[in-house]
Each structure stands twice: as C-alpha cells, then as structure tokens.
Amino acid sequence: xxxxTPEPPYYAVxxxxxxxxxxxxxxxxxxxxxxxxxxxxxxxxxxxxREEIGITVSYWKDLESIKNWKHNSEHSFARKKGxxxxxxxxxxxxxxxxxxxxx
Amino acid sequence: xxxxTPEPPYYAVxxxxxxxxxxxxxxxxxxxxxxxxxxxxxxxxxxxxREEIGITVSYWKDLESIKNWKHNSEHSFARKKGxxxxxxxxxxxxxxxxxxxxx
Lengths: 103, 103
Known about the structure:
Chains A, B: Keywords: Monooxygenase, Oxidoreductase. Two copies of one chain form a homodimer. The first copy, chain A, is of the alpha+beta class. The first copy, chain A, is about 35% helix and about 40% strand. In chain A, a hairpin with a 3-residue loop joins β2 and β3. The longest helix of chain A has 14 residues, at about 75-85. At the A-B interface, β1, β2, β3 and β4 of A face β1, β2, β3 and β4 of B. β4 (about 85-100) of chain A pairs antiparallel with β4 of chain B, so a sheet runs across the interface.
C-alpha cells in the first residue's frame, strides 16, 4: 500500500539493506517492527519492497518522533540483531519531505 | 546495490507505485529511464525494489537537477505513458536528506 501521508513538510526514513542468508527470526521481527512502529507517536505510514535490495521508507511527523522510535527498547534490540545477523549492509537516510504529488 | 551517495545534504526523490497489469514496453522503459537518469547532471544514485508496491529512490545533488530531469523530453514521454498505462497509482515525494549512516 502507498502510505497516506499528510501535506508536507514531514520526514522520511529511507532504510536500504542487503540481507545475509540468515533467515532465523527475520520475518517475525520485520513484521513486529512494522506493528510497533505504527503505534508510535508521530508515525505517518510505511512502504516496503524487497528484491535484490530491500527498501523500507517510514514517514514521521518530525525528528523528535524518529528519535523516540530509534530509542524504543524493542526496536533497539532488533537493530542490534539486524547488524549482527540479518544485514550484510544497510544505509539509513533521514530526509525532510518538502513536496509530494501523485495519482 | 545500495547507492554510494556523498555527505548530506542532498535530495531524494521517492517514487512509490502500484502497477497495472499492462506490461507492454514497461521493462525496457524502466531500464532506459535508469540509464538516462544516470547521465543527468547532479544524479547521485538510484535504488529500486518491487513486490506488492514498487519503490524507486533516486538521489540528486539539488532541486535544480531534479527539475531538469523532470523536464527531460524522453522522461516526460515515459511519465505520460506511465500515467496512462503502467501505473494504477503512484506517489512522488521530494525530500532533502539531512543525515545518513550505515554499515
């Protein structure tokens, strides 16, 4: 689903990753993180797709919301596990959405 | 491949789409657009994945580069065709990358 975000400005966290071959626990954790993110104050939506690389873009009201989500304890645990087991490499970009349009 | 972008600030164009069932010409055009984007001044990289939805994030030096790419004639033609045939819905978000990090 394309995220139904409000009028800009708001923030996007672009998470691009390449997975390892370790699958154990990954799917459940990924699902749980989306579920948990949705419950955070300032969360606006999320979009995700994976082929050769995975791209997950989550949308947030402001930098404060992103910071709070980063420090969520369950999320912190998942990130540690991600660095150790699930991701060969990743990049996180924090960006301010200035304009959007669509069809 | 994860895009090798320079130190922020730079810009991201987040293009999220849902395809129709019309395939004719789509793959070639998508490939050609990436090839063409890479040749534009200010282009910094691109990342793409599609499952239920497609996400393509292209990175650009500044808003000027994005505007020039938008007005490229071959790209304009492809966008028209996209609106007419290939995309059921899409959203384009233009965002200023303020921070990035990775592993």
